[in-house]
Specification:
alpha/beta, binds 3-acetylpyridine adenine dinucleotide, single chain, hydrolase activity, eight-stranded mixed sheet, 33% helix
């Protein structure tokens, strides 16, 4: 009721805690563990039926991480590191989910988590300096601090294809895959979307389906994962000096120890191009292929060297030259959309029952009751798989009706793009923190490193407030504006803003256009956050 919402202190409160954390993925789990250790009362609210976040929801065949699992792992507890050994270079979704469950059990986290509980609204009470949250289960929860650990890639994009609701066959979303799996044996299957989820699942679906038709709007760059045992380059330094390796990761550009090259693509020879590209291609890792040359994300000519060599690889693998050309990305610079890691993706198009449809030349007119209609052809399917991505970085946050000081909603404030200070907080919404939020390195990094850094920073900040006898923290307008300028300046010297990517918000119709993460590097960012904290939270008002 409106009256209740505007005078929250007058209504019944079901739970009253120091901190509410939304989400029980890797961010929420570690946040809960840290805060509990520090003596705060915490409630975690999670829409899913269990822990794991990304790894709970994305159960499509072939789902794996794309950062080596030795790096995509918590590092906050050496004993945890000893207790868990990853089975391969890139673990599967079930193994990563088991890891999240293992962590939840080891630290007895589930007792403070409400599952199957979605937060729908949050309202700041300025007089009492408290947040009041409402859930879809009818709970009213009050808290002093409110942490959105709700994920950067957790809100699936709603299908924006005409007629999607008409199809009478089976419909699947990679991001909401059935827990019992799907058997496509003997079925005619359509997959829409060729981002990481499509590229990982397509080879698996092709192994079962009698016919597979892939609907591609934009080809993506993909490199072979070369999955198998953990690479010696990662295992040896970890075994020799685990803490040293983790330290190097925390102070690296992308959260994974990697050579920092000074070799410029535009100034080096063909031999150097080939040698460095081959080594990166062989590594089967994203960070080496994204840093073959120091200038590849800055200048088109250097970038084109890498792009051309990926095209050559595609042409070597795909036998039909026309199909090979369709699979070669030419509309965006290499790395400006997240490149994919695959196992047998391009080779799948050599199979006789697999067909590629180029939606640029043959757009979908409508999804029909029995299949998909293009302008010049109609195709019938038993199943349609949407691998169409997410409303990334801001979607899950603004899908909660969050009202800050004076009733301004976050959706209104961010109508032209998100504004944050350090990707952690936003003016007008005191005591609200986001983990890996817009304006932080987030999705451009090994997320585990970024998650731990944000959780630790927030935990330290709350401890300092408590120690200083303060109840509130909020950024200043000047700090927020300054950070926004810096985030944009960093992006603008790169090629990133030139692509129609989800990094730019370009994949969701109507979403404001702007580069969402901070591209200045995990190391520079950590330095900035540490400096702010060490200077009595410079750029924040505390009271
Ligand atoms: P999430 O794991 O997304 O968890 C957020 C949780 O919040 C979800 O469980 C969601 O249900 C819940 N939630 C959201 N809104 C609400 C609400 N209103 N009420 C209640 N609950 C809510 N990153 C890497 O660094 N390396 C990788 O290899 C990698 N692989 C990926 C593979 C896939 C298929 C995808 C989709 C992403 C991948 N990512 C990867 C990014 C990945 O999202 C992060 O690494 C990490 O798992 C995010 O953890 P999180 O806890 O921040 O968010
Ligand atoms: O989503 P995407 P994703 N009609 O947005 C197409 C992480 N991740 O789930 O490019 C037709 O990348 C769309 O086409 P276009 C990783 O960070 C990691 O695959 O917009 N097509 C695109 O091809 C990743 O980047 C892994 O022209 C439509 C595809 O659908 C992020 O999550 C695995 C369409 C969506 O690709 C998102 O990946 C999975 C339409 N109306 C995810 N709408 C790992 O490997 C969209 N598309 C670890």
């Amino acid at each position: 009721q409106e009256t209740n919402d505007s005078t929250p202190e007058a209504v019944n409160i079901d739970v009253n805690v120091d901190v509410v954390v939304v989400g029980a993925g890797f961010s929420g789990l570690y946040m809960l563990h840290r805060l509990r250790q520090l003596g705060f009362s915490v409630r975690v609210l999670e829409a899913a039926g269990d822990v794991g976040g990304t790894w709970y929801w994305n159960r499509y065949p072939g789902a794996r991480c794309d950062i080596p699992t030795t790096d995509y792992t918590y590092s906050f507890d050496p004993e945890l590191e000893k207790a868990w050994v990853w089975s391969e270079k890139y673990a599967t979704q079930p193994e990563i989910l088991r890891y999240a469950q293992f962590v939840a059990e080891r630290y007895d986290l589930r007792r403070d988590i409400d599952f199957d509980t979605r937060v729908v609204a949050a309202r700041w009470d300025d007089a009492a300096a408290r947040w009041h949250l409402r859930t879809d289960t009818g709970q009213h929860i009050a808290c002093q601090f409110y942490v959105m650990a709700s994920g950067c890639l957790s809100l699936p994009k709603t299908p924006d294809i005409t007629g999607a609701e008409r199809f009478k066959g089976e419909v699947y979303f990679t991001s909401r895959w059935p827990h019992d799996g799907v058997d496509f044996t003997g079925k005619r299957v359509a997959v829409i979307g060729t981002g990481s989820s499509g590229i990982q699942s397509i080879p698996h679906i092709a192994r079962q389906a009698s016919q597979l038709t892939v609907f591609q709007r934009t080809p993506n760059f993909s490199i072979p994962a070369g999955n198998g045992p953990v690479r010696p380059e990662r295992r040896a330094p970890l075994e020799a000096d685990r803490e040293g390796y983790r330290h190097e990761a925390r102070w690296s550009r992308a959260g994974v120890p990697n050579e920092r090259t000074q070799i410029y693509g535009r100034y080096s020879t063909r031999e150097v191009h080939r040698e460095r590209f081959s080594a990166a291609w062989q590594s089967g890792e994203l960070i080496p292929i994204l840093s073959v040359f120091a200038d590849q994300i800055l200048f088109r000519d250097a970038n084109a060297v890498v792009a051309r060599m990926v095209h050559e690889k595609i042409r070597e693998i795909v036998r039909d030259p026309q199909v090979a050309e369709l699979l070669c990305p030419t509309d965006h610079a290499f790395g400006t959309k997240r490149p994919c890691l695959d196992t047998d993706y391009y080779a799948t198009f050599n199979l006789p029952h697999v067909r590629l449809v180029d939606l640029r030349r043959h757009p979908i007119q409508s999804i029909t009751e029995t299949g998909i209609a293009l302008a010049d052809e109609s195709m019938d399917f038993d199943a349609i798989v949407y691998a169409t991505g997410f409303d990334a970085m801001t979607g899950a946050i603004v899908s909660v009706d969050i009202a800050g000081r004076d009733g301004l909603t976050l959706k209104q404030k961010w109508a032209h793009g998100p504004l944050t200070y350090l990707g952690l907080m936003t003016v007008g919404f005191p005591n609200l923190f986001t983990i890996t939020g817009p304006g932080s390195p987030s999705v451009l990094s090994n997320m585990m490193v970024s998650i731990e850094q944000h959780v630790d920073w927030i935990a330290d900040c709350l401890v300092r407030l408590r120690a200083d006898g303060m109840a509130m923290i909020e950024p200043t307008q000047a700090a927020e504006a300054g950070w926004a300028t810096h985030v944009n300046d960093c992006a603008d010297i790169t090629l990133y803003p030139t692509a129609d990517s989800w990094y730019m918000g370009a994949n969701v119709p109507g979403k404001p256009r702007g580069f969402l993460p901070y591209v200045g590097g995990v190391d520079a960012y950590r330095g900035a956050c540490d400096e702010v904290a060490a200077s009595d939270y410079l750029g924040f008002r505390r009271s």
